[in-house]
């Protein structure tokens, strides 16, 4: 099965930037759409964005459009979430996830990483 290992995260001030990484193994990476999700205390899990298997197309939640960018490097089996202009409301545990390109639901998940934005 596919294994996803996340890195990055941490504590930054509002207006700052962070880049999260998610490295995949155990599958054919370019056969999977990759997504990013987040969950803040007291809130439901929220879709952040996703990137298709080739890296050509992306989609984002309205709350992060213009600030976050998803990219992937298929040669490194890694997907990235670049977060700019961070706000305190971006504070959450961030998860990467994978779904086979012919599937519908994300069925492989990373371990999660804490992102904390101070005001």
Plain-language structure description:
By secondary structure, the chain is an all-beta fold. It contains no helices and 11 strands. The strands form 2 sheets. Strands 2, 4, 5, 6, 9, 10 and 11 form a 7-stranded mixed β-sheet that branches. Strands 1-3-8-7 form a 4-stranded antiparallel β-sheet, with no helix packed on it. The protein is globular and about 40 Å long.
Keywords:
single chain; globular; 7-stranded mixed beta sheet; mainly beta
Question: What's the number of extended β-strand segments?
Answer: 11
Radius of gyration: 13 Å
Q: Give the overall average pLDDT.
A: 97
- Give the low-pLDDT segments: none
Structural class, by secondary structure, is mainly beta
Characterize this entry briefly:
With 119 residues, this protein is mainly β. The protein has strands at 3-7, 10-13, 18-25, 32-39, 46-51, 58-60, 68-73, 78-83, 92-100, 108-109, 113-118.
